[in-house]
Amino acid sequence: MQHTAHCENVADRPELDDATIEFATQVFDLARSGETSTLERLLEHGLPPNLRNAKGDSLLMLASYHGHLDTVRVLLQHKADPDLRNQNGQTPIAGAAFKGNLPMIELLLAHGADIEGASPDGRTALMIAAMFNRTEIVAYLMAHGANVEAKDANGVSAIGAASRMGAPDTPAQLERTLQHARPSQPS
Question: Angle formed by the axes of helices 69-77 and 36-44, to 10°?
Fold first, then answer.
């Protein structure tokens, strides 16, 4: 799913004065700390929902990474892009997988986040969840169509990534899914 939402990056606006930059810093802190009602009022008065800081982190990225479901919900209602990547190419869903936040993943997917949105190194949310042995998230992502056989830039699948990280449960969980997906061979 391609999003064409307009993005404002504070770092790309050298004409901003110190007071405006300080205000923007406070706005990013609101997202980080989950100050939903204050952020909602600002959005209603024209704050761009895809405002990004110097690292490219959007308000949605910060709120989702720090686990603020209500704040993320409000940002999504104001048309924040659920797939907007930061300068490292990371997406909110990948951050939620890293943090082990299934409710956040559910919310992001319900609002159109790309389940396969890979980072520049090719890692998907499924791979990240598998690496950190997040069995519940792995099951959820697979049930919602995540590609178990996708490979990162080094040719490593979710099973391989989980095995390399020493995850005790997710390699077998993923392998069972692959076995069920493969057609049975006649004997």
Answer: 10
